[in-house]
Amino acid sequence: MPDKMDPHPSPYGDFVLPFDIAKAGVRGRLVRLDAASARALGAHSLPEAAARVAGEAVALGALLGTALKLDGRLTIQTKGDGPLDLVTADYYGADEIRGRGVRGYARLDAARFDALDEPGFARLAGKGAMAITIEPQRGGKTYQGIVELSPEGIAASAETYFAQSEQLPTVIQLAAAPLYVAGDPMPHWRAGGIMLQMTPASLTEEGAKQGVESKSDDWERLSLLLKTVEDIELVDTSLAPETLLWRLFHEDEVRVQPPEPVVFRCDCDAARITAVLKSYKPEERQGLADPDGVIRAKCEFCGKVHEIGPEDLT
Fold this sequence. Notes:
This protein has 314 residues and is an alpha+beta fold. Helix content is 30%, strand content 28%. It is built from ten helices and 14 strands. The strands form three sheets. Strands 1, 2, 8, 9, 10 and 11 form a six-stranded antiparallel β-sheet that branches. Strands 7-6-3-4-5-12 form a six-stranded mixed β-sheet. β8 and β9 (188-198) form a beta hairpin. The termini are far apart.
């Protein structure tokens, strides 16, 4: 490997690994999720084709959220007219108490899904839009960008977002796959992704003076190389990420930075639910409680059931 590859390997699962190819004016990130994606997709059962889309959205959230060094929340949401009409993935930045984390949820019309003859992304999601919402915790304003869903999938939709909203040449590959363990009928989902992006500095007037034509050629070559990555390479937790980067970009000086750990994290809160219910009039809450008088609200992301009793609403 080149001398500039980090001699200390990053963990092989539940991390984001930043890297750059400085001479080409390109930066990148590699994400591989293991326990985090298994927990995110394990809260609700989905057919494999739908779970793959949800897993890719979670991986994309980790890529984008860590790239922004966000201290708040980034949400990726797709809405379409297909059986998989809603997919949501949240990335949470690290704070004083919790580390950076991800969660995800997908809604599927089972009857419409069963009627599909070919459950590719275009048929699954249908026509619709992808929204990327950035909510800083300290300072800054909430920002949302919306693009049309690409029939090619989550990664292609995100590339369109960067082309339209950020004007930054970006190429992304995403993957998700189930791992079956002997004795456990439920799949353990892994997800991964890799992203290359031209740095803003390379697109400035000063960057142009340094050889825009050469950088354009480098970008085209590196983009083509990234598109050769296979799904198994993105989700294989036995494959060192540095080895994968070496396979792809061994002709370039790839420099990696310290890996950033990512966990499953759900910030659902009974107090927040209680506050919302308190804002309703008593007659508006009629029918929400079970026979014992307790309102039980299940979080669609983590599966936790929050119990709010009558005494909590007085």
